[in-house]
Structure of Trafficking protein particle complex subunit 11:
Amino acid sequence: MNSYPPELLAQLAPVMFVAGLDVPPSTPAPVAQSPTTPSTPRAQQDPFVSLTSRLREAFVAQRKVAIWQPEKSKSFQIIPVDKAVRFPPRKLVPQDDPGYSAAHSPLSPLTVSSPLHPDGLIAPIWIRKHTTLVPSVFVLFLRIFEYPPYTPKSPLDPPDPDRERERELEERKRDAELSAEVALRKKSTNERNIKLTVVLMATRRMLDDPALDGRLTYIRRQSGLDSRAALFVLSPVSQAELGDFVKSLQQALYEPALEYYTAHSKRVRRKRNRHSQAVSSYPVPHTPVGTAGLGRPLRPEGWTVRYEYKMACFAEFRGEDDIALKLHYQDAYGMLIIMFGSTAILPPRTKRWAEAKVLADCINIKVTKLYLYNNEHALALSHHNTHIRKFGDFSRGWGIGEETFEFWSWIARQHRILAELLEHGTQSKLIIPDHRPVNPALVAAQKLSINAPSSALEIEAMRTMGINPSHALQHPGYYYYMAAKCTEARRERFLAATEAEVRFKSPGNPSPGFANEKKVEHLIIILELYTKAYELFKKYAPANAQNQNQGRLTLWIAYRIGQTYYESGKFEMAVRFFERIAKSYRREKWGLLLRPLLATWYACARQLGDVELSIRLLVEMLGYGAEDSDDPSSLEEDLLAVLKSSVPSAPDPEPMLIDLAESQPIFGSTAVFWVSEVKVGEPAAFQLCLTAPTNSTIASLPFSSVDIQFSGNLPPVTVRHSLEESETPLVQRVDLGHISSSGTTGSPTANFRWQPDASVVFTGTLSSDAPTSFKISKVVLTLTEGPWTIQIPFDPSGTRASAAPAARWLSSVDPPRFLPIGREDSSSVIIRHRPHNILMTLSHKGPAYLDEDYPILVEVTNTDDRELEITADVLLQPTEIDGTENVIALDDERSPSLIKGVNFGALQPGVSIVKTLHLISSGAAGDRMVDVSIQSTVVGAKQPENPELQDMTETLQTLVVPTLDAIKAKYDVVYKRAPGSRVGIADLRAYDHDFWDDGDGGEAVVTAQMECAGPWGLEVTSVKLLREVLPFSGPMDGGLTMRRITSMLRRVTVHDCLQTSYLLGLDYLAGDEFCDVCRISMDLGEDLDLQEAAIIGPGKYEVCWRRLHVPISLTVTIQNKHPSRSANVTIQLEPDPSDGFVVAGLRSGRVPIMLPGGEEKITWRLIPIDCGYIKVPHMKIVDKRRAIAGNAKTTVEAHQEPQELIFYSGWFCPYVQRSWICLEEKGIPYQYKEVNPYKKEKDFLGSIRAKRYTRVSSSANFFDDAFPSHKPSILPGDAYTKAYARIWVDFVGKSCVPAFMRLIQAQEEEKRDLARTELYEAFRKFAAQVKGPYFLGDEFSLVDVAIVPWITRDYIVAENRKYSREDVSAEWKRYADHVEQRESVLKTKSEREKYAEIYGRYLRDEAQSEAAKAIRSGRVIP
């Protein structure tokens, strides 16, 4: 704010002059010395000297002059003055002069000697006059005279009348002198309507003097003081009481001060009104605008500005900020805008124009500040932006637009002064609003909050305007930043003007400020502004901000600070600064800012002569590439120049390590493993692709080697540079061989002279003997030039862009073709143990019955080729059925929930072991779930330190055992009276305690009906009634009694039960029933209510049973022992009524296609219903399949006679069909024999004497050479056409067939789309070369033989993979439709459904052919 007069910016407050507080010299106090008063030689401290000093400190400590003071307290701006201070004259002529009324103020534009004459608006001296020269209140401190005290010699002495008379005369004389002094000051203050207040300092003894009131009245009247707040008396008091006095004095005088400034406002308003009624009270001279030496009086617009500004100031003095803002400052500003809009009123580049411009800027700051006082942030910012926009438009009209340094100097000044204003405000109570997205709930809370800094209008504005910095008030750091940017633009314009001056050897900028601009230290100003912005941005940065934009702007400001240090020549400071902030830029991955920072940093290193730093920076800049305006080879050339022109500082230097861990790597890299996991000992294929940058060249950089480092214990692989190839291909493939812990194979080399966007793909396999995980951990590039050796390590998973590149696999080098890898984490591979082949079988005869010992057979078979140690865990899962108690038992272990670690022993390959798991369930029926876990480990294997790496396989099965009630019982009760007669009274037995009278009650007949509820038949071995005894019952039949139920049921006994022994030992099937009946005699009480009381039965039945008809298993094994034919087997079970079994299972069905040597098993469940040796049901097994179906069947039947040439064939193989077509085309006699290509028997392989030909070209050559008499030849005659045909046969094998297989095996839709596109492209290329009905024209050739088997099978991908011949091209459809009708093709073709059975495995990606395995692993089809 130093650019503007402080008087025009300061917050105005009422001014109080305080006089009489000057510390007097060491003189005695004004007390008359009495002859009777003894003098003491010891000097005493005058208490009024201390009081004066403390009063001065208290007044000075009050309100200070400041720009930001929003507090509305009744306080003054206090100025200590001398008692004899004089006020400036109101007019230049004396008051008694006749021309006094026509005279004007010394600061009026109408006064010739005024600095504003004749057309000035307002001067800072006018504000200074009202803030430092003329007060609103004058406080005068004086010492009242005190006559020295008299101490009589004796208390009995009477008062001395002479001395009292002398004291009164002296006091009256001194009071008259004091009144005259006050009256003189009163006269000067009355001339300006200034309130005068006198404070008389007296001792506490004086305050108790009864004559004090009379003296004060005399002084007030003689001096002419007002009766209100005009006279005070103060005695020496404590510091706290002194502060209260100062505050109360200000409060008492605040109203007179307001009246003073109100009177001034009224006087100014009257003058403004007179000017509004009369356009001008002075003649306007008719002189040309801008004529030198002639004064132009102030226009009415200027008078309006002057008066409005004065009234605004007086309103601000009164503390009425709203009136000052809305009624005066804005009117003055608006009139200034009108004046600036006319060059006739304010000619540009004149003194008055400059003064008016300063006044407009200061009024803008005043308006902005007063808006901020009211927390109207949006209005404050709007006014500030409008001011910049309007005066920016004016500046263009004045010829000082954006192309001049004056324009940007002024813009920077506006932003800086706003930043300083906000900084002052935030140090007080101003709160910058938060512009994050507004939550409606928080808005409501802010409305209710007392300290909410924003109004509802501003919150709504924030919602609609977003976070545009020009539309929402920011913290002061942002405006410091804008001021710095504008100052940079100012410096650019100044340097351009200086350059023009030097170029033309004449002043390029004739503006008067150009000479002053040369004295300005622009870079120092820029550094100061950027430093303040940087500190404030860090201060206001949210601690947990999710959005990093604000933090990145802070980093950008830091970069600009370093850039400014560089431009000012402070290279060491710039380097230290770049070192600090570059760490944050790298961590933030802010490449757009880091690239120019590195360039400036490199320029500093060059200036300092730091060679190693230059090399490090150039290597790092290679990762970000050259800038758009630079030559792509500039970085490469600079690095080579530095390496060739310098040597390391040490004689035998270590390799320079340049770690780019947090920076952008030079090469784009992707590390891909073909599969996510492999087994121990199996090779895992991987590829590492390094791609050169596109925006910079590195072809001349002398890279000598690339080290590829792996995680784990794998050794690194070093690939050295070789110039074997004269021209570097776009995609170069380097085979690294196999890598294991024992070492690597071979010494690979490659050409490391990368062209832009060229790639080197390193391929290889790795394996491990133990479970682990592998990834390519680091790649180290070594660059060698002369004595320099530079190593550049980087992470192969690092990316050169913000988004990671898609993982892809190089499938073809010429032409380059990549396959996408759909896995999320394809940069690593997991090595796991080969799972053990364990077969676990759980056999049981469900459902189980409650309370039975239910056996479950656990059979474990070792189908692996290693000896395995077997351990079992059994878990009985908790059931949700209430009242159940379940137990499991295995060997000697018994538990209600878990049996752990049961050892099954070591099993040799092919050996089985069977253990019985027992399940006992009681309580309620329902399902019981049992989990059986079999853990297998290799016998003799070394146990690793990490248990997770143990070679252990767990096989888990869950068994659900339904549990039912074996027997369900229901009861029926019939009540009747006792059949016997009652005992008479005379019978003495009736008086025995244990006598039971059958005739005295009744009896209940209880029938228990029991039903066999389960599906299995039962043999009931025993039924017992377990009786219960009632207390106080007499002895009953058999000694069995029942328990008591209620006191009203006096006695109960069971007389007898029916005999059920004849029911025992019989078989009961599901639904069969048996029963038991018992009779119960009861002696009922007189008050017994049978509706309310229940009679419990005689006891519990115990039924013993065992199962019948336990099912057994019947397994039939079917083997196809034919050496060449597949089998289509149907099986039918033909039960007979006389059979002794009930059959559960397949009655009639078809077994899946059985290839030669194949085997299938079918199992039935048989339930025996007879005893002894019984025949199993009759079964009928029929092979309904012939060897080959379709047209091929006829061809095969015609070639069954023995011939010299035996054709071993798999009818479904497309490769076999190629040779078969050649045989049919040439008409060579042959004998057809079918073999299983997936299971070649040893006798078959040993019987083959001829060589094996796997390629169609080899077969064709063999047929032509071995049978030259058989025509036509499949191969063309001339050498050129023969070579051309072989090229396209190779194209079929390397492009068409792999694409076809990838499409048919693809399971994900994305991979299917890619494979289909690849197949379409290959077929289109092939079809484009067809020269007739066949590939070479009219003759059927080897090329047609090579592709036609896949044409005859393309209906499979058409039905399952959305393939269509029409979608390929019309040429392809025409060719395919024609060639598949060739006679030799039709004769070797089988029916479609037969192919579909075979190729279903390919569609499910389950085929195990070599071609399917190669496609699945990403290898070339063998």
